[in-house]
Amino acid sequence: MGVVVFDSDVLIAFMSPEDAHHAEAIEWMRQATRPQTERWISAVNYSELLIAPLREGKQEHVKAMLGHFSITTAVVDMALAERAASVRARTNLKLPDAYALATAIDLEHRGRSDVRLASFDKKVLKAHADLHPH
Q1: pLDDT digits (tens, 9 = 90+) for 60-77
Q2: Domain chopping of the chain, boundaries
Q3: pLDDT of residue 133
């Protein structure tokens, strides 16, 4: 596997043993931590990931997890913002979901190969398949 871009739902489920998708999230992390695999999350999805931990005063757990798994946060620059807006316009996804997808597309355009989008949201996965048929 070359690159995994995380939608926030996978990392939220990974951090929450009571989440219905926890076991699936653990499997995503196993796949994503294989050698030679890059791991990414957009800054917008990172914000989503922080909401519940901030309410509980546990935001450091999120930062520690990202560091432990070497997950890089994609900075939102004008190019990524425009790509996310384009994804949203074409798919009608919610903006944070459009950022997850736009991050995957952006990495492909920057020359990364075998980019996979880790999400449990069927709308996001369908939009990815529609915009990027394999």
Answers
A1: 999 999 999 999 999 999
A2: 3-128
A3: 60
Task: Label residue 114 left, alpha or beta by phi (over 0 means left) and psi (-120 to 50 means alpha).
Answer: left
Residues near 28 by beta carbon (within 8 Å), at least 6 away in sequence: 4, 6, 10, 14, 118
- What's the CATH number for 3-128? 3.40.50.1010
Residue identified by tokens 């989503």 is: 48
* CA gap 121, 25 in Å, rounded: 13
Which residue bears the tokens 């990202």?
Answer: 66
Spatial separation of the C-alpha atoms in residues 121 and 72, rounded to whole Å: 21
Residues of the chain with pLDDT under 70: 1, 133-134
H helical segments located in the chain: 8-15, 22-32, 43-55, 59-68, 78-91, 95-109, 122-131
Alpha-carbon span 117 to 105, nearest angstrom: 9
Residue found under tokens 């989440």: 19
Cβ neighbours of residue 127 closer than 8 Å, sequence gap 6 or more: 87, 90, 91, 93, 97, 101
